[in-house]
Amino acid sequence: MACPLCDDTGWRPMEVDGVRRVVRCDCWKRDATMRLLEQAHVPRRYQHCTLDSFTAYNERLALAVDHARRLVEQGPLAERGLLLLGPPGVGKTHVSVGVLRELVLRYGLRGLFYDTRDLLRVIRSTYDPSVHTTEPEVLRPVIDAQVLVLDDLGAEKTSEWVDETLNLIVNSRYSGRRLTLLTSNYPDTGDLAEPDSLRARIGFRMYSRLLEMCEPVHLDGLDYREPRPPNADDAESLRTEWEARKSALKKLPSRTSAQARARLRAARLQTPAEPLDVKWPGGRAGS
Asked: Per the confidence metrics, is the pTM higher than 0.85?
């Protein structure tokens, strides 16, 4: 059915002080923001995620939502994004997508979502002569997006090329003061010799940039991917289950061998060690 105000032209006639003119119709504005949301490339699995639909059943999750809502209220004037940290399945991606949706729909900002490993894969594919997309064509929207979500930072297998590419993206957005949200399963332990910390995974230089660009927010809770008893999705039931299991929760398992951890610790302490060749396996995306 055609819009009764503009007949689907996108322009609505109106009269001001006896002068007849046309203005953009609300239907055009609504369609424009929906197109922006589609262009953000949010994966289908997360397209339903909003801040209102996020169940904050403990203090850490409630604090994360508070940070997210404050960021949305600041809108284009926000000076820092969010660095959402926590184990898989606690809702980091849900919160980040919720913020992205609100900023696009409320303010019309150009947003973009990428899983970090998928972004690196797309960039790497441009080196194939049979692929007609160039590296700058992939990087430019990522660097220029008014809001960027990089999901699962640190899960990528490290290499010199990966470090250089991610540093280029982060430094360019840092210099342009562009709003960035990141999620990671890797903790900020504070131990400079801990190879399974985020700062060891991405490097101290990038980590320092992120601390200035983003507010670190630590989430903790149940893994929503685990099966639940029937009718156990309300906040009170989740909180009860969380309290019952909290004491039994363990830290994320180490993703490196004891030998590799010892060698990396030796390198951090600047003690003699054989050449470092740590093989980093990746983590899971979409948490």
From this structure: no
